[in-house]
Amino acid sequence: MADSALHARIMALDVGARRIGVAVSDPLGITAQGLDTIQRQNKRRDLEALRRLLAEYQIQEVVVGLPLRVTVHLWDERWTSTEANRLLRETDLSIEKRAKAVDRMAATLILQSWLEAHR
User: Fold this and answer.
1) Could you tell me the residue range of the domain that residue 17 belongs to?
2) How many other CB atoms are there within 10 angstroms of residue 9's CB atom?
3) Fewer Cβ close by (within 10 Å): the C or N end of the chain?
4) Cα four-point dihedral sign 49, 100, 97, 63
5) Which CATH number fits the domain that encloses residue 108?
6) What distance, in Å, lies between the first and last C-alpha atoms of the chain?
């Protein structure tokens, strides 16, 4: 594997009207980890929050996201929120904490599915 491939991280976004769930791959592109959910405010602040994450994690590709001068892949995410809710119901989290975690979990599921399909 080329050295540059070791650092080509991928970001997944679960974009909603009020929140954006965010996940990033590990540097090897094997696993997905959820990041803090972005609470939407306005386009300028939303895009600035995404720009900071793109720079911080040195993102090279985006799955289901906004075209921010990186490669964007569209991936079927119709059932990810349902699956995220199902998985979170199996935990001991309160309803309030599950609601806050569902977008992060959905973004993680989107990215993990995409990574597995593109190995």
Assistant:
1) 3-117
2) 18
3) C
4) negative
5) 3.30.420.140
6) 13
The token pair at 77 is 């995410």
* Number of residues assigned to the chain: 119
Residue type at position 31: T
The number of folded domains in the chain is: 1
Is the pLDDT at 63 greater than 80? The verdict is yes
Give the pLDDT confidence of 7-26 residue by residue, as tens digits.
Answer: 689 999 988 889 999 999 99
Query: Which tokens sit at 23?
Result: 């996940």
Tell me, what amino acid is at 60?
A: Q
Handedness of CA 44, 39, 22, 73 (dihedral sign): negative
Tokens encoding 26: 């590990």
Tracing tokens 């993990």 back to the chain, one arrives at 112
- Answer for the pair 103, 19: CB distance below 8 angstroms, yes or no: yes
Looking at 40-112, which runs of residues are DSSP E strands? 59-63, 71-73
pLDDT one-digit tens code per residue, 21-43: 999 999 998 999 999 999 999 99
